[in-house]
Amino acid sequence: MDSADHVTLAVLAEMLKASSAERGWPPTMSKFQTEIAGGSLYVGSPETVATKLAAAIGLLGLTRFDMAYALGRAPHEQRMAAIDFYGREVILRVREPLATGLATATRRPPRGRRPACG
Q1: What is the DSSP letter of 88?
Q2: Could you read off the pLDDT of 68-89 as tens digits, one per residue?
Q3: b/e string for 39-57 if b means 16 or more Cβ within 10 A?
Q4: Model-level pTM?
Q5: Checking CA distances to 65, which of 23, 40, 86, 107 falls within 20 to 30 Å?
Q6: Residues 50, 71: Cα–Cα separation, whole Å
């Protein structure tokens, strides 16, 4: 985890704490970190997020990825800047492993098909 990941983690942990207090469900830091490490949260530096995203795309054999995100109560300008940053910094880093086949090394077989045992 690089320094950008640590800063992002601290900011997101605070946002999670605030939003869960509003919604009345108790998060734990352990659950939050588990979701970042191997779950559905894509959090961290552009390299960290791109690596996880490319691995998921390759593993699942996806042809597209629709991102839903929440930035808490961030102003519109910050939300637009985040989307722009994602497009400029993350997506470019996702395309390279997908183009070279590196992300498909662990690809699962299509649903309903089992790999041959031998």
Answers
A1: I
A2: 766 667 788 888 888 898 899 9
A3: eebbbbbbebbbbbbbbeb
A4: 0.63
A5: 23
A6: 18
